[in-house]
Amino acid sequence: MSARRRSGGRAARQAARIAAYAETQPYLTRQLAPYEVLSEEGLATIEDHADQLLAKVGMEIVDFPEAVEIFAAHGAEVDGSRVRFPDGMCRQIIQATAPASFTQHARNPERNVVIGDPHIVMAPAYGSPFVRDVDEGRRYATIEDFHNFAKLTYMAPSLHHAGGTLCEPVDLPVNKRHFDMIHAHLTLSDKPFMGSVTAPERAADTVAMARIVFGPNFMDENTVILSLCNANSPLSWDRAMLGSAKVYAEANQATILTPFILAGAMSPATAAAAATQSLAEAMVGIAFTQMVRPGVPAVLGSFASSMSMQTGAPTFGTPEPALILFMMAALARRLGVPFRSGGALTASKLPDAQAAYESANTLMPTLLAGTNFVLHTAGWLEGGLTMGYEKFVLDADQAGMASSLVAGPDMSENGLAFDTLINHQPHEHFLGTEHTLANFETAFWTSALADNSSYEQWQDSGSLDSVARANQEWKRQLAEYEPPPIDDAVVAELTEFVELRKAELPDEFV
User: Fold this and answer.
1) What confidence tier does 19 reach under pLDDT thresholds 50, 70, 90?
2) Mean pLDDT, the chain, as a whole number?
3) Is the pLDDT assigned to residue 49 strictly greater than 80?
4) Does the reported pTM lie above 0.90?
5) Residues near 42 by Cβ (< 8 Å), separated by ≥ 6?
6) Is CATH 3.20.20.480 what the domain over 95-399 is classified as, yes or no?
7) Buried b (16+ CB within 10 A) or exposed e, 240-273
């Protein structure tokens, strides 16, 4: 048997074991205690500063007088579009009604996810207008690319969630592309998904489409949509985001309320100050959902990056955003709501060494902090401007190790292996022991894409680097993709709804 065949057989068996293991985990359950970087006193100081910031400076509510009226009706102080929240008002509202965790139901009930401690749900990258692969380079994304990434996400065992705007299909009208994206999520995958938030009307379309698939009665009682609403930092929320959050809250659907912080530009440059502002902005969004519908699920989101003080460009994989992430995770736990952050982030334009170390430097703090919903787990390039095909499968592969890490050490009888230790003689290896033979398939997490063969085996297999192997892998996955089952009548009704709604709207490309 040639080295090439040995390597291929081993890789196939390894991939099958990883897939079988991961398929039993629709989401992860963390056994490790979250890593803390601040004392009780430090966290309390940030909370107090966030409450004072909301009381003294407040939040600007842009182009959404209805939200201002809602805030005022619940006790906020209003001065035009400026809203101030006295006496820890937002915190009190959140802690009174916002759930600590919730289930997001998938079209396939076996893929339902629980979002909240001690669980971790991982989703792909979000929002890129460009895509990149080895063959065609960087280009504007199309709906075909969106379909491809929906399929790749569905086939990735380490990704528990289908995500949302996997890439921005710029070949479709701006005001209509959400129909095609939601249609793809509901038909090409049976994992839970994220809805549209670019306008309240598009959020309403998402709710209507989900009702066709899940049924209105089921959605009245259960969460099937999770959506991302970003604050306009510093200290501002607008109609697109709060309006979309209102639509989802009224329909009993969940939102992630996330400040987007470029520290030094959209917040002060220091980690503690950025965390203070992030907490204040997120609390306003979460409190708003509770004012609209008490008890509706909401997630505290945090996205903070450092920046080059020479160019103003965002930087990733640096220690300061990791410190913010650790602080925000702890603050979310104290507030009593699920937490979203992290991913595999990089400023690199290619899936190169910079992309690898920056992504690792963001993914590891994400896991250690105790993040509950991980957006941007796979595919992120160029500060989020580009979704990479090769980067996607490399990231998804590395995300697979999360299940082994967050499970913590095995302290069972098998994990301790004391009988094996006490009965073993010095200078004798353990390769032939009963314990090693019983555990050799599952003892260590192993990458399905990394090459651990000898130089000669690697050379005989084509001398492929990781990017070349990833290029082959995403093509193989798309070639082998089979859609999950869905009732033909449901698809027909969903398609008819999309066609009728599109016909009502003129095309808009800006």
Assistant:
1) very low
2) 94
3) yes
4) yes
5) 272
6) yes
7) bbbbbbbbbbebbbbbbbbbbbbbbebbeeebeb
